[in-house]
């Protein structure tokens, strides 16, 4: 799997499938593998481009402030490197914030936008949670960190599946490319500092806003704000799943994504 040197870092990326290009951007604490459960359905119809954001996975992790616009510029530089001019682009949580910045900065490159469990600007509770997560990993081990974070990500129904949460924690603890504490700190500050509220009307491409009804981290009201302010936005609230619905309800998520994408084919 290749890397490209862009904007002063080595950026890891992965391309699978054939068809129109679809870029997927992960959120806080996650690298490109977060999309794994929906990849088979997507790669059967699309050329799916995933990347590890700066600071995550196998990309460089400089110990310096990050911005979400900077990470959007990383995506644009990657697309230039692989000679792709126009894409569908989707992002989960922080990845959705990056995707917004990408569409705002490079509107000519965006055919459509998918925002999953995302937001324009956090409220007091959200910002407090993200700031705390940014500070915490420097003081506790990864196992305890996951135990603190996961109740905000998954629903009670998911927690009730015997052994499921323990399995996810073990996966995270033994993952060969764990998050670095300084990267999570810088990511958390980038999330809290980002605000697209007054720029959403400038997102002119067709947009799907998708959120789980039981999302307590980025609640439905955040997605409603996005859908109301983006001119060509469609809001879908999934009855099942919380913030981690890519893991908890992957079939429902990919079904909504594919339906949206099918009606917005790139015309060459």
From TrEMBL:
Give the Pfam families listed for this entry. Answer: Abhydrolase_1
Among SUPFAM superfamilies, the record links this protein to:
alpha/beta-Hydrolases
Give UniProt keywords alphabetically. Hydrolase
Stretches of the chain forming a coiled coil according to its record: none
In alphabetical order, the GO MF annotations are:
hydrolase activity
Q: Which stretches make up the AB hydrolase-1 domain?
A: 21-250
Keyword Hydrolase attributed:
yes
- Check the record and name the PANTHER family matching this protein: AB HYDROLASE-1 DOMAIN-CONTAINING PROTEIN (PTHR43433:SF5), HYDROLASE, ALPHA/BETA FOLD FAMILY PROTEIN (PTHR43433)
Name of the protein in question = Alpha/beta hydrolase
* Natural source organism: Anabaena azotica FACHB-119
């Amino acid at each position: 799997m290749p890397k490209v040197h862009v904007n002063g870092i080595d950026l890891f990326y992965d391309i699978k499938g054939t068809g129109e290009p679809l870029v997927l951007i992960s959120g806080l604490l996650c690298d490109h593998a977060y999309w794994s459960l929906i990849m088979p359905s997507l790669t059967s119809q699309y050329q799916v481009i995933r990347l590890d954001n700066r600071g995550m996975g196998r990309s460089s992790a400089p110990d310096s402030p990050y911005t979400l616009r900077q990470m959007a510029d990383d995506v644009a530089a990657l697309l230039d490197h692989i000679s792709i001019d126009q894409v569908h682009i989707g992002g989960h949580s922080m990845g959705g914030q990056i995707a917004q910045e990408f569409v705002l900065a490079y509107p000519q490159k965006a055919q459509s936008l998918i925002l999953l469990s995302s937001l324009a600007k956090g409220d007091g509770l959200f910002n407090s949670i993200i700031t705390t997560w940014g500070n915490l990993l420097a003081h506790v081990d990864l196992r305890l960190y996951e135990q603190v974070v996961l109740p905000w990500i998954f629903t009670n129904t998911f927690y009730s599946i015997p052994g499921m949460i323990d399995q996810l924690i073990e996966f995270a603890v033994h993952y060969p490319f764990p998050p670095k504490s300084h990267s999570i700190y810088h990511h958390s500050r980038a999330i809290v500092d980002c605000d697209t509220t007054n720029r959403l009307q400038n997102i002119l491409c067709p947009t799907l806003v998708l959120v789980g009804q039981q999302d307590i981290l980025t609640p439905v009201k955040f997605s409603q704000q996005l859908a109301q302010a983006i001119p060509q936005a469609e809001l879908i609230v999934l009855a099942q799943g919380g913030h981690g619905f890519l893991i908890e309800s992957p079939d429902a998520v990919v079904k909504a994504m594919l339906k949206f994408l099918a009606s917005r084919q790139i015309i060459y």
